[in-house]
Amino acid sequence: MKTGSKKLKLLLAFSMACSVLSSFAVLGLLLLRDDPQTDALVSLVFPLAFWLGLIGEQVLFWLAWRGCRTGAQGGVPDKGRIGLFAPFRTKAGGAADVVFLLCLAGVILLTVLNIQSGVLPLLLISFMILSFRLHCILNGKTMREIKSITARKDEINA
Q1: How far apart, in Å, do the first and last CA atoms of the chain sit?
Q2: Rounded to the nearest 10 degrees, how much is the dihedral formed by the CA atoms of 52, 55, 56, 57?
Q3: How far apart are CA 34 and CA 43, in angstroms?
Q4: C-alpha dihedral sign at 78, 83, 87, 92
Q5: Tens digits of residue pLDDT in 2-55
Q6: What is the pTM assigned to this prediction?
Q7: What is the crossing angle of helices 5-24 and 141-157, to 10°?
Q8: Among residues 49, 16, 46, which one has the least CA distance to residue 133?
Q9: Core vs surface per residue 47-68: b (16+ CB within 10 A) or e
């Protein structure tokens, strides 16, 4: 099965969109009130969005990974480290790494200052989750392989 670089990029883009959905579902905790009806709805919708986003991200990422690994593109699989252990491999991945480190520092600071409620802790946690997941995607072997496939196609077409 020949998988084009555009399709692989689209799979990764949708995977990242699912990451955004899942990460921002954490912010649904801000909508919890003393109203039982609202709380019941929030307690159902946002966890569902979180888990569906997480599952969608993983399935779409796996499909992109599989498309890169079929060998149909003529590429040699990258023998480097997986995205989890490869910080600052790409510019976009580096940006996600910086956001993650800033959010982690913010969460640690809020913990030390014993600030545990309100909007800021949930925002930091939400962005920390998102930036970590984007770190794994953007610094990973699949992203590097897609860039390699695109570069080879550009050389052939030039």
Answers
A1: 25
A2: 120
A3: 13
A4: positive
A5: 557 788 889 999 999 999 999 999 998 888 877 888 889 989 999 999 999 999
A6: 0.82
A7: 150
A8: 16
A9: eebbeebbebbeebbebbbebb
